[in-house]
Every structure is written in C-alpha cells, then in structure tokens.
C-alpha cells in the first residue's frame, strides 16, 4: 500500500497518473492480494492498520469520473498493456479493468463485513456484482461481441478494433505501432484472463468461443 495515494490511485512507474491514464486493474489486484495474503498467513493486521488506504483503493475505481452512467462500467483512455491516448487508445471500456475491479471488490467485501464495515461491504459487494453483470450482459457496452470476450469498446459501445498512434507519441522507428500496417486490438491474449481468473467458467461457451 506504499504505492497508493491517499485518494486510492496506484502509483505507476513512480508517477501519479491522472484519471484518464489510471490502470484500474491494479486496484482490483491489490484488493484480491490482500485477501489471498490473509488466507495464506492468517495475518489480517494490515486491514486494521491501513483500513483508510484499503477503502480508498476500493472506492477509487467507483468514482464518478470512471463510472458510465448508462451501464455502470468503468472507462478511461488507458489499456491493459499500458498504452494510452497518444498510442491511439480511445476513451472507452477495457475488459480487464472491469474484471479485476469486480474480483477485487468481491474479495474485500466479506473482509470489510468481518471487521464491522458493513456499509462499505454491502456497497462493494453490490458494485462487484453490477460490474460482472454489465461486463458479460449489457446489450451495448458489455465486453462481449459475437459470443466472444473482446478487449475494448468505445463509449458508444462500438468495438475498438485497432489503435492508430498520434504523431505526438513520437514513437521510434521499428516499433510495430509506428509501422504502416494496421495495429489490431482483437484478438488479444488479455481476453483469456477472465477465464484464468474464474470470472468466466472455463467450460462456459463464452470461454470456449473466446
């Protein structure tokens, strides 16, 4: 938690990023790691000693600037491989951000309840459930297309199929994103992570088609 700001944003490459470039999956991973650490060691002192910081990590992705008013999904201009607006990542919904935040909130909610933070526990459990349902089932913004999990959608619900770097990115020669060929975003190996994490069951037709 030393790499977390008081507001709950995770420091990235020793830099505090603005909301457009926040890697929201890191918040979910940290919350899930706290659960796994406690389950393996029986040591829950960090939750009691650093509860304000833990709560900030959980609440940060649920800030109004990230949450879409229609679907409840989380959006900004950063993606799983750390590219952002200059690399052609348009404002939209990143699959892994929804998945890991949902998993993390689902992990921290029962721990919060066990420590008497019932309001927070209920809020996070419900947010976890809503994110999962919207990710898999929202008719416009859900991260499923043609029966497969896909990496990213724009704010209007269309699939972002490729990234086109802006001149300001000043990419060096030889970088694939700077080449003349289209840089496709789908398929992407990160689309399998929800299956590996148990967000989607491995035997589910969605996992098989993905």
Features:
two-stranded antiparallel ribbon; 210 residues; mainly alpha; 7 helices; 8% strand; three-stranded antiparallel beta sheet
Task: Please give a structural write-up.
- α1 packs across α4 and α4 packs antiparallel against α5.
- This protein has helices spanning 25-41, 45-49, 51-59, 95-114, 118-137, 193-196, 205-209, and strands at residues 75-76, 92-94, 144-145, 148-149, 152-154, 162-163, 183-184.
- It has 210 residues and is mostly helical.
- It is globular, with a radius of gyration of 18 Å.
Q: Could you outline the blueprint of secondary structure elements for this entry?
A:
Elements: H1 25-41, H2 45-49, H3 51-59, E1 75-76, E2 92-94, H4 95-114, H5 118-137, E3 144-145, E4 148-149, E5 152-154, E6 162-163, E7 183-184, H6 193-196, H7 205-209
Antiparallel strand pairs: 1-2, 2-5, 3-4, 6-7
Helix pairs in contact: 1-4, 4-5
Strand order of the largest sheet: 1-2-5
Instruction: Please compute the radius of gyration using only Cα atoms.
Output: 18 Å
Mean pLDDT equals 94
In percent terms, what proportion of residues is strand? 5-15%
Q: What is the rounded distance between the termini?
A: 34 Å
Low-confidence stretches: none
Helix content: 25-40%
- Annotation field: number of helices: 7
The dominant shape is: globular
């Amino acid at each position: 938690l030393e790499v977390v700001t008081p507001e709950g944003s995770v420091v990235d490459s020793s830099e505090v990023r603005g909301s457009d470039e926040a890697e929201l999956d890191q918040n979910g991973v940290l919350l899930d790691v706290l659960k796994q650490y406690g389950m393996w060691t029986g040591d829950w002192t960090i939750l009691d000693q650093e509860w304000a910081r833990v709560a900030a990590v959980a609440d940060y992705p649920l800030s109004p600037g990230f949450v879409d008013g229609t679907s409840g999904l989380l959006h900004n201009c950063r993606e799983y491989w750390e590219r952002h607006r200059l690399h052609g990542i348009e404002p939209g919904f990143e699959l892994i951000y929804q998945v890991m935040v949902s998993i993390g909130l689902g992990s921290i909610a029962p721990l919060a309840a066990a420590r008497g933070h019932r309001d927070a526990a209920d809020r996070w459990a419900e947010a976890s459930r809503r994110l999962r349902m919207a990710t898999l089932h929202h008719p416009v913004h859900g991260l499923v297309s043609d029966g497969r999990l896909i990496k990213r959608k724009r704010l209007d619900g269309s699939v972002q199929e490729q990234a086109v770097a802006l001149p300001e990115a000043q990419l060096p020669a030889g970088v694939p994103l700077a080449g003349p060929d289209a840089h496709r975003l789908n398929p992407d190996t990160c689309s399998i992570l929800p299956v590996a994490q148990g967000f989607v069951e491995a035997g589910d037709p969605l996992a098989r088609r993905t």
